[in-house]
Amino acid sequence: MFDLDGTLIDSIPTYFRIAEAMLDEVGLPQAPREAVAAMIKEGLTGFRHLIPESMAERREELIEACMRAGREISARLYPDSVDLISGVRALFHRLKEVGLRIGIVTASHMQFIERKLSPLKEAGIHGLIDTVIVLEDTAAKKPDPEPLTACARRLGVEEGRSVYVGDADVDMVAGRQAGTFTIGVLTGVDDYETLAANGPDLIVSSVRDLIPWF
Predict the structure, then answer these.
(1) pLDDT tens digit string along 61-102?
(2) 192 shares a domain with 101
(3) What pLDDT, on a 0 to 100 scale, did the predictor assign at position 78?
């Protein structure tokens, strides 16, 4: 089981560009990197991290303005600036060769998932994915383990016989709580120290490093 953004697709730099352009358009000051990172991890609910405390009384209005601007900017920037992370194609083919099932667990909304899966479609590996869990599929989201347990259930495997790969602290916590073997990758939003502090079984530079395991 894999996270999507920053794990399979190189979308994190694009999200930072989108956030920068969005804040400029709305007239808000640029947010600290950690605030943008928190937004990326949480999805649409994370826009609250971008609103300064000094503007708290206008938070809901400004979040709505950010969401409107973000949708427009994302539609313009996203499709042509996000590529498959190196090694994903080879890893997916190898997993299928040895008879393993593949799931994706993402905090992305259903309305955006086709666009976000486009790099995998272009690489010809979309058909190798057995199931995708999006935000609307479960009542809770990562770091709660529910999305991972839902994915394992769809795949017909026990969590303890599963591997979950992600790039963020919320992925590590969710995987650990779900009882999966949990692997952090350094191609996304969090660094080694942040991942290590949240208890993964392994940290590798990229999914490419997992190919020899299989």
Answers:
(1) 999 999 999 889 988 887 678 999 999 999 999 999 999 999
(2) yes
(3) 75
Task: Please indicate, yes or no, whether residues 77 and 149 belong to a single structural domain of this protein.
Answer: no
Shared-domain flag, residues 65 and 111: no
Residue 123 lies in a domain: yes
Place of tokens 């352009």: 21
Low-confidence residues of the chain, pLDDT below 50?
none
Instruction: Establish if 19 belongs to a structural domain.
Output: yes
- The rounded distance, in Å, linking the Cα atoms of 71 and 78 is 10
CB-based contact 50:39 (threshold 8 Å): yes
Q: Are 176 and 198 in contact (CB under 8 A)?
A: yes
User: What 8-state DSSP symbol labels residue 133?
Assistant: E
Structural domain including 46 reads 12-81
Rounded to whole angstroms, what are the CA distances from 2 to 68, 71, 85, 151, 174? 29, 25, 13, 10, 12
> How close are the terminal C-alpha atoms of the chain, in Å?
15
Which one-letter amino acid corresponds to residue 187? Answer: T
Domain-terminating residue out of 81, 105, 132 = 81
pLDDT of residue 79: 67
Residue 30 falls inside a structural domain: yes
Q: What is the CATH number of the domain that holds 128?
A: 3.40.50.1000
Residue 139 DSSP class = S
pTM above 0.70, yes or no: yes
Give the pLDDT confidence score for residue 76 in this predicted structure: 84
Alpha-carbon distance 16 to 31, whole Å?
Answer: 10
